What we know:
- The chain has ten helices and 13 strands.
- By secondary structure, the chain is α/β, with parallel strands linked by helices.
Amino acid sequence: MIVDVLGMGAVAMDLVLRCEDLPGEDGFAFVHKEEWLPGGSCSNVLVTLASMGARCAVAAQVGDDSYGDAVRADLSRHGISTEHLLAREGSTTLHTFVAVARNGTRSIFANLGDAFLNLPDSRVGKEMLRETRVFYTDMFAARAALKLAWLCREMDIPVVFNLECSPSFMESCGVSRAELEEMLSLCHLFCAGREGLRGLTPFEDEREAAAHLCDKYIPPGGVVATLGEKGAFWAGMGESISVPAFAVAPIDTTGAGDAFAGGLMYARLLQTQDIGPSLAFANACGAVKCLQPGPRLKATRQQIEAFMEAQGNGHAQTLSQK
Length: 322
């Protein structure tokens, strides 16, 4: 089976608590609604890609608990292959508690469990990559992800590394600075937000940080900085491009970065679009996600393009058909 994107990273269940405002220290907030939703950064990215028509598979480890069963069933329901989704006996699946305020801001509390970070590299191998076009990872679990990335180099498969968290948080999850830098040296395209870029470089300005990482590690596909309401920035091959964000009134920003990453891979690597239109499409995916409750984008390529056209931004052309 041909797989457009094999993703390795966080798969989880999220308990989403909807409240009026996020409480401060010693404060409290009323919960208006609560619901369990499948999530996890890697799962969210793959679901975005699948909604665009991409063929996806996941490589990760969950527990043999009810959370793990729910994650597996949900991914299968979205058409994502779970052949390489392992279950660790007697273990707990990653799950999070996400408090979302009416204005879309959020706080996240994670119970890491004892399954997804403990995926041994001995359980992954070249057979997972056969007929795979792109390998995506958020570096959970690090050693297994690095093993696949080295195999991708042998097999000429592009690696997309999306640093969702700060390096200090990654370290608390057992991912060392040296391992992050090793993945940076292996990836084709690197994507990170403000915390990741600032934690990897001495620069406060995200654009300077992205350019510095591009010069240092020379990823063939460049470095993308996700800047929230300021849009996105790409640095590569001595060039740089900034693409503005779409102005929306968010109701839930959870998963917006995942929607961006999925949209970027779809446009840039699967549809082989130029970087400018690819960034615009990715920005639109993130914006539409902010208008939807829950951690995942629920939109097709056609719906994203309709949103872009309705916005009327000069940069927001639809993708050419390929």
